[in-house]
């Protein structure tokens, strides 16, 4: 099962200048719990936005740069190559950025989407639109604003309808 995991604003905003637009500690915790011990597929810019590789995950970095090499990254040059390398993982995760999500949408079986309740006009990266005709929402868990979270948000789990 190929899963895309993301946090996006009400208008599918993901980030700006290769960074996030919000700080949601509980969402980070959920991301860590879900992706630990799995392959995580990302673009070069997403990988370079991390201060260091995320522990207990295999980082597959898609880039067009044939000479790119970084410690902690398995460098690939296509989504197909990333999926081939991760084929023994029961649930590899596609974690971004925007272009990688666009590549992943046609092949993903599941979307774990944290819908951040706000709009962010200065965003420069977006999660791709997906058709509600092709996907079914199977779970929603709301999280209110609190002292650690400036925005309320909802964890949404979507599955491709053809698999349901």
Automatic annotation (TrEMBL):
Its EC number is 1.5.1.3. Transmembrane segments: none annotated. GO terms for biological process: dihydrofolate metabolic process; folic acid metabolic process; one-carbon metabolic process; tetrahydrofolate biosynthetic process. One of its GO terms (molecular function) is NADP+ binding. GO terms for cellular component: cytosol. Residues 1-160 form the DHFR domain. It catalyses: (6S)-5,6,7,8-tetrahydrofolate + NADP(+) = 7,8-dihydrofolate + NADPH + H(+). Pathway: Cofactor biosynthesis; tetrahydrofolate biosynthesis; 5,6,7,8-tetrahydrofolate from 7,8-dihydrofolate: step 1/1. It comes from the Bacteria. Keywords: NADP, One-carbon metabolism, Oxidoreductase. Belongs to the dihydrofolate reductase family. Key enzyme in folate metabolism. Catalyzes an essential reaction for de novo glycine and purine synthesis, and for DNA precursor synthesis. This is Dihydrofolate reductase. It comes from Aequorivita vitellina. The lineage of its organism: Bacteria, Pseudomonadati, Bacteroidota, Flavobacteriia, Flavobacteriales.
